[in-house]
Amino acid sequence: MDCTTSPSYSNRLLDSLPEEDRKRFLADCEIVDLAFGRKLAEPGETISYAFFPIDCLVSLIATLESGGRLEVSMAGNEGMVGFPLMLGAEKSSLQAVVQGAGAALRMSSACFQDHLERSPALERLMKRYLNVLMSQISQSAACAHYHSLEARTARWLLMTHDRTRGDELRITHEFLSGMLGVRRAGVTLAAKALQRRGLIDYQRGRITVHDRPGLEAASCRCYATDRKTYGQMIERLA
Amino acid sequence: MDCTTSPSYSNRLLDSLPEEDRKRFLADCEIVDLAFGRKLAEPGETISYAFFPIDCLVSLIATLESGGRLEVSMAGNEGMVGFPLMLGAEKSSLQAVVQGAGAALRMSSACFQDHLERSPALERLMKRYLNVLMSQISQSAACAHYHSLEARTARWLLMTHDRTRGDELRITHEFLSGMLGVRRAGVTLAAKALQRRGLIDYQRGRITVHDRPGLEAASCRCYATDRKTYGQMIERLA
DNA sequence: CTGTTTATGTACAGCACCGTACCGACTGAA
DNA sequence: TTCAGTCGGTACGGTGCTGTACATAAACAG
């Protein structure tokens, strides 16, 4: 399939490239379907591809030797997976897991690095995105340390909702607990509290967002801060 | 003072540059003395300089709107302060505070960005350092969430010890509590536990490291992981 | 030497998690 | 239609912090 023609099969980050650069870039991409749970990167392992989500959603997870896991960022249509490739590193330090199945544009590591060298606009864009990532990861660090599980759950739902079509998110409490680094039972309590307030509804593997403004009020300010950072660094490119 | 001649007034990161590039870089630096507590960057504020610590020590701190603060990385002689300058950003998202007084090389933002464009070796080096930072910040996120205060205290002391001449660290429990995002009283308990084990000793504003191997055993593996990452990304440049 | 400031020691109730465990309910495959 | 597997609801005691408070001790300025 020719990725250069169909604008619906695109990625918001790449969309902000100049037409010329964008076309050249897309010509070297292929579209892949990513199933839920697929690992796009593992800590310590070589990165083979850069991914630009179209309608899938990927979690970036920090892992500890002791086994602990904590989601530190998310990449959907507004982002990409494989930032170490911009930094002269072959290996990933984070784990990247497909959290929402869907399509993505994929480019081999070597090819991506080649494009980075040839397209100053791409290089600039990727650097700005990297700065957004830095801010988000730092924010997540402090957020996980200070904020209540309920607020963090609300934040996570909002972030996922932003990167998903429709109001229904297909995830289990178990999965969410893995992202937030807490017990499954803890998520159930938090979710129930949000449900009782009429902000969400859920049944067996799906959570439905009913009241976004309410969720925003229930979430910590980290959500708003992240959006603001992205807006300032990426959208205000024009 | 001419920074190009005296090798003792240098910075380990810059030392790994090719002689040529290094000299040109140092020629545009000035040496400044940084007092304890001085803020080199504030979240949301414009960055005026890049700093390359000679014998001072700087903490990078994530701040929350709600007031919470958490140290996410540290820059001593092995690092630098002002990474957003490499990423096309003018503003800092983190706070940078001088945690150990001392000297640093300083270069204006514009000049630094100029050097980045002219010296591919510098660009490569800075990118690799950025990757180290990313790993460390992610690690800190999970560490603060999962590990005990005692282990985190040990880790912090080791990291600071690595970046300090001698075994005596001049910090109060109060300050440390700010970095770790906990109560002052909590740090006192952790410090006392480490002291009772004979790993450290302390009195009013100074902590002395007595048993490094012991401290390493008491710390979480995050300390070792961080060192390994730095070694792989920076030292193995040669 | 005195009074002030700063640093550390200690205590206590409170709370948000933890690990674990078990049950019921839903789902999908046989 | 039954059964196995998955998911969510709930409960228990335990623990590592929290916020607060107050006392002691060292450092310092006068």
UniProtKB/TrEMBL annotation, chains A, B:
GO cellular component, one term: cytosol
Entry superkingdom: Bacteria
Record-level Gene Ontology MF annotations: DNA binding; DNA-binding transcription factor activity; kinase activity
InterPro entries attached to this UniProt entry: cNMP-bd_dom_sf, Env_Response_Regulators, HTH_CRP, RmlC-like_jellyroll, WH-like_DNA-bd_sf, WH_DNA-bd_sf
Source organism: Halomonas daqiaonensis
The keyword Transferase belongs to this UniProt entry's keyword annotation: yes
UniProt keyword annotations, A-Z: DNA-binding, Kinase, Transcription, Transcription regulation, Transferase
Alphabetized Pfam families for the sequence: HTH_Crp_2
Domain HTH crp-type: 151-217
Name of the featured protein: cAMP-binding domain of CRP or a regulatory subunit of cAMP-dependent protein kinases
